[in-house]
Amino acid sequence: MNTFRTETRLPVHNGVTLVENIFVEKLAAEKAYEFLLVIAPLRIYGATGSWVNPIAIT
Known about the structure:
Blueprint: H1 6-14, H2 25-29, E1 36-41, E2 52-57
Antiparallel strand pairs: 1-2
């Protein structure tokens, strides 16, 4: 039985980025319902996660 959770397995094996705690209140206040989300993680060799710098382009 595989005991790995999705949050652990997806980033490591599939390169999927999981982002939590993004503050989108300002975008919602400006009624920006469509935007390009660019996420630039730190380049750390061998790491499975890092801080990111999310940028919303409207």
